[in-house]
Amino acid sequence: MATEQTPPEVVVVTGAGGMGRAIVRRIGSGRSVVLADFDEANLASSAEVLRADGHHVHPVRTDVSSANDVAALAGVAAGLGPIHCVAHTAGLSPAQATAAQIVAVDLVGTARILDAFEAHVQPGTVAVCIASMAATFATLPDETLQLLATTPTDELHTLAALDPSTLDAGMAYVVAKRGVQVRVEAAALAWGRRGGRVVSLSPGIIATPQGNEELAGESGDGMRAMIAMSALGRLGTPDDIAATVAFLASPAASLITGTDVLVDGGIVAAVRRQRSPL
């Protein structure tokens, strides 16, 4: 008698850029990969490259700031099999977007991902949400952090701390990424009741197209100075981030949830110990 085959585990990666592709290569083998991105051309080309590498890729064009898009993405992923990992790398940097766009994608988009995938969490499901080293330097009142962590997703954009008329793109990025960190803290409780885990990962300066765009912009000199003074003295790579995601999504990290993991080559350590200005 034939037995029904168990479908392969599913890896969901939002953001088809350098980090996203590196994560697929690291943890996508033998699994169904759902790859999401707002840019259809980038999504299609990344899916083609990853398929040529042997990965089973299901591209889904997704605007993570849209509740409907994210709900559809979660539905596609859950329909393919049990979800092993959601690696949420989609985001905008100050060189790419306005303050309002950064809040909508980087923070509200993360909240929508956590909301939509919670219903599909099974024992062992892990979400890793990309925050930023920049969030480590944010100094926000406890009341503001509480609001960033717990305000219903559809109301987040109304918070005074996220008012785009009072923030430039750089500060919006810092506040939004700090919001990602505390949003993950709050979500870990609900995910944990289902047997899942959720972690934020704060990269330092990484050699992705987005990172290189920042290095070529107004903040480039300051970023290069931070790399030079850091503990390791080098630019990070997408593989550095993918390796950390692979660890966090593995049973070896089974007690790690509701916290942030800083992957910056020691930049924050150098800044704090040397008391150097950013």
Fold blueprint:
Elements lengths: L9 E5 L3 H10 L4 E6 L2 H13 L3 E6 L5 H14 L2 E6 L10 H20 L7 E5 L11 H9 L18 H25 L3 E7 L5 H7 L4 H10 L8 H11 L11 E4 L3 H8 L4
Parallel strand pairs: 1-2, 1-4, 2-3, 4-5, 5-6, 6-7
Helix pairs in contact: 1-9, 3-4, 4-6, 5-6
Write a concise synopsis of the structure shown.
The chain is built from ten helices and seven strands. With 278 residues, the chain is an alpha/beta fold. It has a single domain, classed as 3-Layer(aba) Sandwich (Rossmann fold).
Q: What does this protein structure show overall?
A:
This protein is 46% helix and 14% strand. It is α/β, with parallel strands linked by helices. It has one domain (10-206, 237-265): NAD(P)-binding Rossmann-like Domain (Rossmann fold, 3-Layer(aba) Sandwich), CATH 3.40.50. A seven-stranded parallel β-sheet has the order 3-2-1-4-5-6-7, with helices on both faces. Helix 1 (18-27) crosses helix 9 (238-248) and helix 4 runs parallel beside helix 6 (169-193). The longest helix is centred in the middle third of the chain and has 25 residues, at 169-193. The chain starts with 9 loop residues before the first strand and ends with a helix.
